Amino acid sequence: MKNPSSCRELGIAQRGIRGRLKYSPRYSNPFALHKHIHLRWLKAHVGYLGNDCADQLAKEAITKGDPFLLPKPLSYLKAEIKSAALSIWQDNWDNGETGRSTHDIVPRVSNKPVG
């Protein structure tokens, strides 16, 4: 590695930018800014500053174990909340003291009308 300190500084800068992007919905998606991504093949893994930095940062990510968590989409969270609410409702319906004769006719709760 030609200049390890510059890689460290690059990593610090990237983490700082990533932290700011987390709070800005407009820029949290890199594809919102740049629609095209260019991939290039490098013949060797030696001598390219960006590649050396990427290798060092990848090794640090593995050894430090800081996970990169992607936020779940709102639709997923809504579905999870709905599922949990229906589960609690069903448990209350199954174990409740009132409405037992109706429970015999309609044993499963649902947010859809009966009929």
From TrEMBL:
Q: Which GO terms describe its molecular function?
A: nucleic acid binding
Instruction: Tell me the InterPro entries matching this sequence.
Output: RNaseH-like_sf, RNaseH_sf
UniProt-listed SUPFAM superfamilies: Ribonuclease H-like
Name the domain of life this protein comes from: Eukaryota
Q: Where is this region: Disordered?
A: 95-115
What is the protein name given in its UniProt record?
A: Uncharacterized protein
Question: Which species?
Answer: Araneus ventricosus
